[in-house]
TrEMBL record:
<dbReference type="InterPro" id="IPR005297">
    <property type="entry name" value="Lipoprotein_repeat"/>
</dbReference>
<keyword id="KW-0813">Transport</keyword>
<dbReference type="InterPro" id="IPR036909">
    <property type="entry name" value="Cyt_c-like_dom_sf"/>
</dbReference>
<dbReference type="InterPro" id="IPR009056">
    <property type="entry name" value="Cyt_c-like_dom"/>
</dbReference>
<dbReference type="InterPro" id="IPR008168">
    <property type="entry name" value="Cyt_C_IC"/>
</dbReference>
<feature type="domain" description="Cytochrome c">
    <location>
        <begin position="171"/>
        <end position="246"/>
    </location>
</feature>
<feature type="signal peptide">
    <location>
        <begin position="1"/>
        <end position="26"/>
    </location>
</feature>
<keyword id="KW-0349">Heme</keyword>
<keyword id="KW-0408">Iron</keyword>
<dbReference type="Pfam" id="PF13442">
    <property type="entry name" value="Cytochrome_CBB3"/>
</dbReference>
<dbReference type="GO" id="GO:0009055">
    <property type="term" value="F:electron transfer activity"/>
</dbReference>
<dbReference type="GO" id="GO:0043448">
    <property type="term" value="P:alkane catabolic process"/>
</dbReference>
<dbReference type="Pfam" id="PF03640">
    <property type="entry name" value="Lipoprotein_15"/>
</dbReference>
<keyword id="KW-0249">Electron transport</keyword>
<dbReference type="GO" id="GO:0005506">
    <property type="term" value="F:iron ion binding"/>
</dbReference>
<dbReference type="GO" id="GO:0020037">
    <property type="term" value="F:heme binding"/>
</dbReference>
<keyword id="KW-0732">Signal</keyword>
Length: 262
């Protein structure tokens, strides 16, 4: 099943309430010269790659494995002001950046408002966070309500841990197997191997339960909306089944979560 990745509630709230002026007010210690010097420093890490951590949705990292972010105040353009620059270092490249295990067609290097050739992915300007000291650190996620990690699909989001503490009970699995066989197997394959639909075997994006529920209920691209056909019990059951079959081990989905996704 294909499904859509979404911004977190934090990111959405930030985009609506935390403007550039507010960000500048939050930290006024940085001078114009400090920001200009930092943004103009050359950066040799023109390789953008896929990072993974447990059951999180795969996200972007640089050549050293450091997590990359976009800013909730950025809407398809680099708008990080001088105070912002104290914590956020734009990823720059004088030539076309390279991609590894991502979608290289989403990569660009364009001049930002300060004349620096900044790398973007899917239109989202990319940054490093100065609080991340080593590969695997994700301290910029949610920092000052503006830092947002970027998925390999080019969406700003909060990667979610799998399972959400809902058990994949035998009853849920059996009910889900029945729904899957009658409705989903024709496209996704009886063993999740993929056919007309996405291969679900070993599909790490199933870790994002809310996004999976949204796609089952509301549809996405060639995936039809099944919310009118399935009740909440059936949605929870089939979501639990695909999240815990064919090598996937992402935990269960409750009826309450399915109902909340409508």
């Amino acid at each position: 099943m294909k499904f859509k990745l979404t911004h977190t509630a934090r990111s959405v709230a930030c985009a609506a309430t935390f403007g550039i002026a507010g960000l500048a007010h939050a930290n006024t210690a940085t001078t114009d010269s400090d920001a200009a010097q930092k943004s103009s420093q050359p950066n040799s890490a023109t390789l953008i790659a896929k990072g993974t951590s447990g059951a999180m949705t795969p996200f972007l990292v640089d050549a050293e494995g450091r997590t990359l972010y976009t800013l909730a105040t950025d809407e398809k353009k680099a708008a990080c002001d001088d105070a912002c620059m104290k914590h956020w270092d734009p990823v720059v490249s004088e030539s076309r950046p390279l991609g590894k295990d991502i979608l290289p067609g989403l990569l660009k290097a364009e001049k930002n408002d300060k004349g620096v050739s900044q790398v973007s992915y899917g239109g989202l300007p990319l940054y490093r966070f100065d609080g991340d000291k080593k590969p695997g650190d994700m301290n910029g996620q949610g920092f000052a309500d503006v830092g947002v990690m970027v998925s390999v699909l080019g969406t700003a989001e909060h990667p979610q841990e799998a399972g959400e503490k809902v058990e994949a009970t035998p009853e849920l699995m059996a009910a889900g197997a029945k729904v899957f066989a009658s409705t989903c197997a024709a496209c996704h394959g009886a063993e999740g191997q993929g056919a007309f639909g996405t291969k679900l075997e070993g599909f790490d994006r199933l870790a994002n339960g809310p996004a999976l529920l949204s796609t089952i209920i509301h549809g996405l691209n060639s995936m039809p909306a099944l919310g009118g056909q399935f009740n909440d019990e059936q949605v929870a059951a089939v979501a639990t089944y695909v999240r815990n079959s064919w090598g996937n081990k992402f935990g269960g989905v409750s009826v309450e979560q399915a109902k909340a996704a409508r």
